[in-house]
Amino acid sequence: MKEGPDIALIGSLIGDPARANILTALMGGQALTPTELAGHAGVTLQTASSHLAKLEAGGLVTQRKQGRHRYYALSEDEVGLMLESLMGFAASRGLTRHRPGPQDPALRKARVCYNHLAGDYGVRMLDSLIGAKQIEVEGEEVVLTKAGRERIEALGIDYAALRASRRPICRTCLDWSERRSHLAGSLGEALLTQFIDRGWAKRVKDSRAIRFTDTGEKAFLEHFPL
Prior knowledge:
By secondary structure, this protein is of the alpha+beta class. Helices cover about 50% and strands about 20% of the residues. The chain has eleven helices and ten strands. The strands form five sheets. A two-stranded antiparallel ribbon has the order 1-2. A two-stranded antiparallel sheet has the order 3-4. Helix 2 (about 15-25) crosses helix 3 (about 35-40) and helix 3 (about 35-40) crosses helix 4 (about 45-55). The chain is globular and about 50 Å long.
């Protein structure tokens, strides 16, 4: 018997088309009901429930109950990072369902990657922070510098709360449409929350796209110059 992590199990869970569609739908970061996920997967509610049970047993999704309803979400950041990396791997080899990159230009420009900003604007934000020496990347290590801490606190983000979290403050995630890295981790989530709370951007209904207002786009580009 072979030893080590069972990648075959994870591969089989993700490899089923219906389950892949369910996981992709949950990449938007919102908790969805089995009925909603059945629609995304193109299967019956009974079949979707069976798929969700397998994904939950495999540690890829988690559920919570609210009254009579059940809601499902990705179990943790690592699942979203893994899925985005797989999307990038597939896209880099031409393994796309249609043309390379997101069909909708809005998705290519800015979208949610589980809980942080992805797409062209997500990549731009990380590049800008690195260029200003507010984030340093050394191999796999991503560090928020003192200048970076001052910068995010000026934006209204509580650095002490980020530091107290068990999650990494900064990490990179391979952007599957841009084929470069964007910012993930608790800081990536906090920044996206700030953009929405400040009214700079909003989520597009039934989509992973993030749409910036004219004022918000101007502010974003000024805050994250290249």
